[in-house]
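Why show two proteins at once? Because comparison is the fastest way to build intuition. When a single record is shown, students tend to memorize it. When two are placed side by side, the eye starts asking what differs. So, the first record is below.
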Amino acid sequence: MLGDKKVLYSGMQATGNLTLGNYLGALKNWVNLNEEYECFFGVMDLHSITVRQNPAEFRKRAKSLLALYIAAGLDPEKNCIYYQSHVSAHAELGWILDCFTYMGELNRMTQFKDKSAKHADNVNAGLFTYPALMAADILLYQADYVPVGRDQQQHLEITRDIAERVNAIYEGVFTIPEGYYGKRGAKIMSLQDPTKKMSKSDENPNGSIYLMDDPDTIVRKIKRAVTDSDNSIRYSEDKPGVSNLLDIYSAATGKSIQESEKDFEGKGYGDFKLGVAESVVDVLKPLQDNYNRIINDKAYLEEIIKKNDDKARYVANKTLRKLRKKMGFTDIPR
């Protein structure tokens, strides 16, 4: 079912609302990867339940994320876009890999420490063993490449360690994945705290621009963005707020930072922020129009879900059967 292309795997959690940072930093740059790679993009709903979810809202967000993938330009005929929870091999391999993952490795994971601090009332075992499930996500599809940012590097490293450990015992089960460091998306920071990444879990809603924000909301948030008292529009380490807005403008318009600085030469922060806001409105409008069309086409979405889930199951189960056989599990009667 897979061709001669190398396999690339990625996904996003079905929690919160996707931000401009998610789009400009990742999603926008996934669009043409299928020309070179066999791509799998998951709606990572199993990962989402380490935090308690409202069932109706959770279901809605997962469907919304699938529609946003497609609205952003990921062709579901050329990419496998599927629900993680619809492929039971993820949970099964996740458990098997738990048995090949050491407590010391999991104790060193910074994401566990960060999330435990945020959700001190719900430090569950799933949060601790999360990296084994993430390794299963990647290894099931024999992924050659995984797009990674700096905050995800540790997860890729433990995935590689687990895969090599399994392969040392049961030769040739998994492809050892590498980080994909192709065209990097812009690193978009919070509008209210430009030392932190723009995040869908930010407690301050004015820090993030969400993909479905209307034009008035976008303008209002950018007008309130943190800058400084200097009033000069230049890209500099000592001007993180202005630099972040220039990054946003540059990524939205396709212009270089130098060209972006020239566009606002001699202008004040008011004109600058309005220009940035207009560029964001322009880049999000076609995505929003596509999303509104797709999310309301129930028959189309159900067809996409069934077709892509079937492909994901086929590929994942092939890997799982191979490992089960090598490990000595009893064959399932057919």
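Second record. Ask yourself what differs from the first in the token line.
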Amino acid sequence: MILDPLIGGIAMGCIYSLIALGYNMLIRAMNLLHFAQGEVMMVGALAGVTLVSVLHIPYLAAIPLIMALCAALSLGLDTFAYRPVRRRNVPVINLIIATLGVSILLSNAAILIWGAEPIRYPRIYGSDALLLGPVRIPPQFLAPLVVGGLLMVGLQIFFARSLTGVAMRAAAQDPEAARLMGIDIDRMIRYTFAISGAMGGAAGALLGPIIFASFNMGEVIGIKAFVAATLGGLGSMPGAMVGGILFGVIETFGALFISSGYKDALGYAVMIAILLVAPSGLFGRRARA
């Protein structure tokens, strides 16, 4: 049945979209490609194992705790790793290289804390699927669909309706004009790091029960999320959401109709094809406002 893999693809796409939103927020605000975003997600997934398995915190209650932890982690990375580099007024490529170093640091720290072996989450979901008419939703995909969807909608409302969200958009679009209007650009950058970290943490919490949590999961998932961000258009918030879901669906149907061994390659091939037609992605920079 075509609806079953479609639901799975959309669910995985919601997870990719959350990470892609983190990428695009930092690209939008600072033109910074944060290569450690996947590792922030990885920390969220592994921290979720500790909270649920060791501390016995209910899974849904653990998700906001994981988001807060990863928001603090991302903010700490900016404070102690990126901001000192920024203050030297170095080219942005130097800052991007710093994010590569941070990604390696986080992976090695994860090995020290959680070990090198993949870790299975405890049994969280039941075995019965949710039936909505002809649609059958497997239990492991309910949280990504519901929580991921709510987070994406909430983030859009935050940027559109709240004073802080509007200030962050203004600071990202024209920092000098925003500074003249009294907006604290450094504070907006800190907010951006915190929110991008929270989105990464949520993605890790949602992905962990579906696959094994491990120190190296951020590398592969982070690349996929970056591909999703590129598909939608770097710097575009709607593009991150659409690109993530599109990549998740392409990946799922590629595994279904071609081979699971080629599903990653198929997603990248489709990305190249789309970029040949629309070099800025499906939404591109026009969607920044």
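One difference worth noting in the second protein: The chain is about 70% helix and 0% strand.
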